[in-house]
Design a protein that fits this description.
With about 220 residues, this protein is of the alpha/beta class. The chain is built from ten helices and eight strands. Helix 1 crosses helix 4 and helix 5 runs parallel beside helix 10.
Length: about 220
């Protein structure tokens, strides 16, 4: 019996480009809370995919002040996220095709508070059965918990379902490996190819290429 496909998408760097929104919001919080950030845009971009508190700590914020910065970030991001975020090329087509191949969900480190308005803004929310955000788990990616919780809600059965995680960073791919599912790394986001190669044998240019790969895959 042919297994039903379950396709899990990461969000930032896989389906959407929120680089401008994220980077500008970090700079806004540095100015608002008077932190002398001496790093570069790249330092911020290299951390996209991690939870905000970890990003701020890695960028030099003291532990005692991290949540002040996270709160300031959320207040600002809520205002500018839609206007400074774009849907990646062919991402809509990728999600549409994925929904025709099987069941589709999102596993992201963004909170649902910001994820759902963006998915609705780009008219793709209706494709997704489950959207798992940061607030839905204790342990974000690369821990497998976000994937496992999503699959539990989708009534996953290893004998009935063939599951794939599609993501652009090692966090997605490590989480997939630890959850004992297969993954495809895409090169349209924040991960470097040499890093992605360490954690998956399947690499595609972008989400639509990944879905076409799955469409043509012989089970």
């Amino acid at each position: 019996m042919k297994k039903e496909k379950i396709i899990l998408f990461d969000l930032d760097g896989t389906l959407i480009d929120s680089t401008d929104a994220i980077v500008s919001t970090f700079y806004h919080t540095f100015k608002e809370l008077e932190f002398n950030f001496t790093g570069s845009d790249k330092n911020i971009k290299d951390l996209i995919g991690y939870p905000l508190d970890i990003m701020y700590k890695d960028l030099g914020i003291e532990d005692s002040k991290v949540w002040d910065f996270v709160d300031a970030y959320k207040n600002r991001y809520r205002v500018i996220s839609k206007e400074q975020t774009t849907l990646l090329e062919n991402a809509y087509e990728a999600v549409l095709l994925a929904s025709q191949l099987g069941r589709v969900s999102v596993v992201t480190t963004k909170t649902r508070m910001y994820t759902m308005p963006l998915l609705e803004h780009f008219n793709i929310a209706h494709f997704f059965e489950i959207v798992t955000g940061r607030e839905n788990v204790q342990n974000p990616k690369p821990h497998p918990e976000p994937i496992l919780i999503t699959l539990e809600q989708m009534n996953y059965n290893k004998d009935l379902h063939d599951v794939w995680m599609i993501g652009d960073t090692k966090l997605d791919l490590i989480a997939a490996r630890e959850a004992n599912i297969r993954s495809i790394g895409v090169l349209c986001g924040y991960g470097e190819i040499n890093e992605i190669q360490e954690y998956t044998q399947f690499i595609q240019k972008d989400a639509i290429s990944a879905i076409n790969f799955l469409k043509n895959l012989k089970d």
